[in-house]
Amino acid sequence: MNDGDSVARVLRRPAALAPEDSVERAANLLRHTGAELAPVTDRRGVLLGVVGSGDLRSVLSIPDVSAASRSPVATVMRPPDQALRRSATVGEARQALAGSRDPVLFVLDERGRVIGAVVWTDLLSAEPASARPLHVGGMATPWGVYLHSGLARGGVGDLSLLASGAVLGLLFAVSYGLVGAAAYGLQRAAGWPLYDLWGAAAVAPGAGGLAWLALQAAALPVFLVLLRALPLSGYHAAEHQTVHALERGEPLHPEVVGRMPRVHARCGTNLLAGAIVFAGVLQASVGAGLTGFGATEGALLGAAGALFTWRSMGAWLQRYFTTRPPTPKQLAAGIAAGRDLERDYGSAFARRPTLVRRLWAAGLPQTAGGAAAGLGAAIWAGQLLFGLGS
């Protein structure tokens, strides 16, 4: 960032106070936002004064601190030491901060309205700071990375989310079909009734029930192995690494983002891990008749197992199956999605946060629709080619 660059490139949005606000509100604002100085503005946003922690310290010397904390901010605010105009450069901002007793400079438009603030840390970075959400979600698709934060979105579009769901649905159907093909081959070669077990809706508890359960569950490791082999797992890693960088406030440079972990605590893989443990314990204890438990006891045992293992098992699945080290192209796709999200995040506040809009921004309807379409297409193709289910 050069001295001749516009200071508008590094502005942050300050939380403003009104002159009639209480001193207590000003203290809470500084405490919760971590700001060192807050602007006091009128209803039009015109700067009237500033309030900092040092200005509030005088309230402590008043005998009745409780009463003083209810007094208006106008009684403790003061004029800013300096202020900048919108047309100021980064070099002028550095010079002004060096000669100011205030740690924050507010930037005003031609009418004296506050349009932003700048602090020393904004001027030390090699690139301008951007407003970032505290929590970021995302999805990997066959053609790139999708990121979201409530209403803000970045990266690939809805068609890619649909395609991602379709790929996952088809991949699971193929995995299940491969297990059936292997069972059919073994039955033909060795005479074991594995294919009959695989096609059965359910079997009686016992050894047969255990074999049926193993056949039904075998599709999952096949699915995970196939998923790791696809580019989707590399994009998944790039998504996680970009999310880590955004949430940690790191610059979106390849060498920085590439150092971020591939495992993320909020990944949907963790939910998959919990579902696997729950279903496995429930089926083993009830369906396979291993414990003699009823459905209620089996469900409670499965829930307890999932509760204590879903995060650790989810992290293991992420590390070895659902992600793999991204290629430079995949990492670049994650970074591009992160920058898109930063740009959209600044305008997202003006949108109405309806539930439908938030769900759509999260990409859940698109991905679920694609998965249903992928599974449906696989079932239709299976029935057409092999007469399955007839």
Topology, please?
Elements: H1 23-33, E1 37-41, E2 47-52, H2 53-57, H3 65-69, E3 83-85, H4 90-98, E4 104-108, E5 114-119, H5 120-124, E6 137-141, E7 144-149, E8 152-155, H6 158-190, H7 194-199, H8 207-217, H9 219-229, H10 231-248, H11 254-257, H12 268-287, H13 295-322, H14 328-348, H15 355-362, H16 364-386
Parallel strand pairs: 3-4
Antiparallel strand pairs: 1-2, 4-5, 6-7, 7-8
Task: Please give a structural write-up.
This protein has 390 residues and is mainly α. It folds into 2 domains: 7-124, CBS-domain (Roll); 137-262 and 323-386, no CATH class. 56% of the residues lie in helices and 10% in strands. The protein has 16 helices and 8 strands. Helix 10 (231-248) crosses helix 14. The longest helix is centred in the middle third of the chain and has 33 residues, at 158-190. The protein starts with 22 loop residues before the first helix and ends with a helix. The mean pLDDT is 87.
